[in-house]
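JOB MANIFEST
job_type = single_chain_structure
chain_count = 1
residues = 323
[input]
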Amino acid sequence: MRRIVRMVVERHHLCDIDTDPHIQKVILPHLSHPAVVAVAHALQRATRPGRLSSQHHAPMADQLRHAAARAVDSAQRASSNTGLWVSVDLAEPDSHLRESLARALAVIPPRRRSDDGDDQGLASSEVTCWRETDRAVFRETVDLLHAAWPQMLAELQEIIYQVALLHGKAIDGFTDFMVHGAVMINQARLVTGDTGLSGVVRLAEALVHEGAHTRCNAAAVRHPFLRPVNGDGELVPTPLRADPRPLAGLFQQLVVLVRSALLYRRLPGVSNPAHRARQHKLIDQARQGAQTLARRAHALTDHGQEVLAEATALLDGELAGAC
């Protein structure tokens, strides 16, 4: 991703990364930051008709400088999180995150009015600030992951730059390739839920879940999981969404579900009824997804089939013993 962003920026001569010492200091270390990635996407959209016009060059260069400044602030916040096993920015509601949320809200299908007259379609979300109580839960969650699954924590450290909190009922959490490296998680995930799972465990699952999407998004850039299709492709039922989704969405859901189930396999207190119930549900959903994908294996690339085989092996092996 870093290489792609640099290529986009240099192709349109927004800055001379190799010769300008200031640019090297401010932008070069932060090419993979979500705010800078957002500018690269905006630049790509602005140049679809051809080369970047002279009237757009200066505004885009200003956007890049502004994004780099936000990336520097973000890195400073991340480094100030003392006592954590990872360096990650517990993000402020910056513009690139608010714009990402607006895109996500725009594609949510309208919901029916509930029986009590509460119009669920009016439910909304906003990017909110981290409270000290939220930060305390995050620290406990990182400690839990470090003890239970240090390899996953190390991976999250590599692929996630920012964790943003959402307030409101519209969205539980999501990732957005246009701000790659940022994950959005609903603040409600940081407290004990109706099923008895603690906020620490729920946040751990949310980080594993969104981290899996983030890794899939990056991996598919170089080695796609699905073969090219004409048009939008087939829509299929999926375990995590009520509406039919493209195969690419189902594929990512399978990876997410298997990894989330593996998290519960590694958590302490294997006899915890809430943990076991959640793990069983995740495994059942993963099996549904794997079966649907197996029937459409012809649509997967060799790489995609390898990942499907690995997920199936985990479901039939390590995770089979959990049921």
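[summary]
The radius of gyration is 21 Å.
The chain has eleven helices and seven strands.
exit_status = 0
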